[in-house]
Write a structure and sequence with these properties.
alpha/beta, 11 helices
Length: 339
Amino acid sequence: MRVLLTGGAGFIGRHVLAELSAAGHDVRVLDSLRDDVHHRKPVSLPAELVVGDVRDADVVERALHGVDAVFHLAAKVGLGVDVADLPDYASSNDHGTAVLLAGMARAGVGRLVLASSMVVYGEGLGACAEHGKVRPGPRLETDLAAGRFEAPCPLCGRPLQPALVDEEAAPDPRNAYAASKLAQEHLATSWARTTGGAVTALRYHNVYGPGMPRDTPYAGVAAIFISALRSGRVPQVFEDGRQLRDFVHVRDVAAATVAALNASHGVRAYNVGSGTPRTVGEMARALSHALDGPTPAVTGQYRLGDVRHITADSSRLRAELSWTPRVAFNDGVAELARS
């Protein structure tokens, strides 16, 4: 199949490109090579590369010529905790997606695999001893500053226990990036209903692995720890280090992304996670051990907009697309430390 992969020069994009090529697909990459991501370094890919922005309708028209499906990974990532970030997130992610979808409609391309994110769930779900599964209430800065990190039950105010989040959980985006990813899903759904196209939205959880961006505003927590360790510094773990995430290896994410081509027609969302929640502190300690570095420091610091726990129920992806994560956590961490 002839496919267009936007953002194919990025961290996840390169692994998706390798997976698509291994599966025998003919891939064209569209990437703007943003300076704040690629730092003007030369880029070489084993595929046709169109350098341009998805916000440019003429570039999109050229990139879509002759393709059968689109994998849309191009996006501005990161939290976007400053209000000043809003225009760039809305423009890069949402306007860019709208231009791409309009181009697909004109070109008659009816299949889209969209890279979404677990951030659309916000704080996800929590378990209250009295009220069962509930959407957590907002974490107030006064509580965070006092070291009260667990999200409260919105009904009784008691701290919640974490719970797995499935795709039917109500979205609750809590920062600029999250809002832009949910808007992408809404735009794609509108396109599908209007054109009869098919959309598979993949809500990636905490992706790690070789090629992770480091020392940039977009670095994930694992990359931040690696950078500290390679510089001889003690990794700084925010809050109490017990916040749960689902760390999933980038090759497993790439395999899930390519498997999404086999999803049924219509609109369907899938969580992409390992299925084994781990704490941020565990990740820091595992990387310190792999690099023979200092013991991480738990600082009690916090970032507004961070969620306390977000862990995936990926059973839908496993059942419907026969996908199984293959990279064990310890193996993946060791590989990341070597990369």
